[in-house]
């Protein structure tokens, strides 16, 4: 089965992408994983400058999930380009750079800097991080803010522009439509869900930031529903994510309408997950006589349920 997928002008050799913040800058995993075997790597969110992030505790396990408030710790774009990109290029990785800003101008400046860097395949606009106080999610929570960032970055770069949407809104499909209308090449969804956990003995929040973002299998059915809703509303490709841990999960997102997927939290539990996911997808393709994985995208049969019900 042909596993390649297209995201705007970009062709990925398979639909499996490492999710931002869950695969470092890619280089950390290079001894374990053949970076060129992945469809792409979305690197940890980058600001212009270095950031320390929040103090610990920054991660808490919850039932079927992970709660984090890292606060976008990072080395900044200049160190990334100088220290990480040479190795990523040498290892043949397809690099999506996840960019973050507190102002519109920061997104634009990051886009301009990265547009000139060999080996950067696309920009993923992080307008959805729930763990920082300024910028980011405040853009992604409004139609106007989303359109504004996407249009400004679109005008500043020839790279594919992929805004990453937050699920912490009432109607994610209208945000996706605003992104499409503003010139996005694709959308990534979803980022984490705002959440919190409390230690009842001390009555203190378990995270230093008090609230954080929930990821992992707990969010998967909500994320699948959001991909399905966006697929009805927009024409550009969707990169789906949220709790993917098995090949079946990947297929579920693709049938709901995702052209590619990202895997985040599951990579922490099993960094060797990638070949297992690919093998599972291939096995499904053989069983179902699929020539190309793209033949599966958006093929959910919602009529079948109705027919079963009528005939029973
Ligand atoms: C520890 C951690 C750090 C993250 N950092 C980022 C980030 O820097 N930028 C971003 O867009 N998303 C970030 N995310 C969100 C993930 O990329 C992904 O959207 C989310 O975790 C849902 O996918 P999953 O359930 O497969 O982890 C982070 C998630 C986790 C768990």
Describe this structure in words.
By secondary structure, the protein is α/β, with parallel strands linked by helices. It is 35% helix and 19% strand. The protein is built from ten helices and 16 strands. The strands form four sheets. Strands 9-8-7-4-3-16-15-10 form an eight-stranded parallel sheet. Strands 5-6-14-11 form a four-stranded antiparallel sheet, with no helix packed on it. Helix 7 links the parallel strand 15 and strand 16. Helix 4 packs parallel to helix 5 and helix 5 packs across helix 6. The chain is globular. The mean pLDDT is 95.
Question: Secondary structure elements and their pairing?
Answer:
Elements: E1 5-7, E2 10-12, E3 16-18, E4 40-42, E5 59-62, E6 65-68, H1 76-90, E7 95-99, H2 104-115, E8 120-126, H3 137-140, H4 143-156, E9 161-164, H5 172-181, E10 187-189, E11 193-195, E12 198-199, E13 204-205, E14 212-215, H6 220-233, E15 238-241, H7 247-256, E16 260-263, H8 265-269, H9 273-287, H10 302-311
Parallel strand pairs: 3-4, 3-16, 4-7, 7-8, 8-9, 10-15, 15-16
Antiparallel strand pairs: 1-2, 5-6, 6-14, 11-14, 12-13
Helix pairs in contact: 2-4, 4-5, 5-6, 6-7, 7-9
Residues 19-22, 44-45, 66, 68, 70, 72, 98, 126, 129, 164, 191-192, 215-216, 219, 241-244, 263-266 line the site of flavin mononucleotide (FMN).
């Amino acid at each position: 089965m042909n596993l390649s997928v297209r995201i705007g002008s970009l062709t990925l050799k398979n639909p499996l992408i490492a999710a931002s913040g869950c695969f470092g800058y890619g280089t950390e995993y290079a001894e374990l994983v053949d970076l060129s075997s992945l469809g792409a790597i979305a690197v940890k969110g980058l600001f212009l400058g270095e950031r320390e992030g929040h103090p610990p505790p920054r991660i808490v396990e919850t039932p079927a999930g992970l709660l984090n408030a890292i606060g976008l710790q990072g080395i900044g774009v200049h160190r990334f380009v100088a220290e990480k990109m040479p190795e990523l290029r040498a290892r043949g990785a397809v690099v999506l750079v996840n960019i973050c800003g507190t102002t519109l101008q920061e997104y634009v400046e990051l886009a301009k800097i990265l547009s000139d860097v060999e080996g950067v395949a696309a920009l993923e606009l992080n307008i959805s991080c729930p763990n920082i106080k300024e910028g980011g999610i405040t853009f992604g929570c409004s139609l106007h803010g989303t359109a504004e960032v996407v249009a400004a970055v679109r005008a500043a770069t020839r790279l594919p522009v992929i805004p990453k949407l937050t699920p912490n809104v009432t109607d994610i499909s209208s945000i996706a439509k605003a992104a499409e209308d503003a010139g996005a090449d694709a959308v990534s969804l979803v980022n984490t869900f705002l959440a919190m956990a409390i230690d009842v003995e001390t009555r203190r929040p378990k995270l230093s930031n008090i609230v954080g973002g929930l990821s992992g299998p707990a969010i998967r059915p909500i994320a699948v529903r959001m991909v399905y809703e966006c697929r009805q509303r927009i024409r550009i490709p969707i990169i789906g994510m949220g709790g993917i841990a098995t090949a079946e999960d990947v297929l579920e997102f693709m049938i709901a309408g995702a052209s590619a997927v990202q895997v985040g939290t599951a990579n922490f539990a099993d960094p060797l997950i990638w070949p297992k996911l690919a093998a599972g997808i291939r096995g499904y393709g053989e069983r179902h006589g699929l020539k190309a994985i793209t033949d599966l995208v958006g093929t959910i049969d919602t009529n079948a349920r109705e027919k079963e019900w009528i005939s029973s």
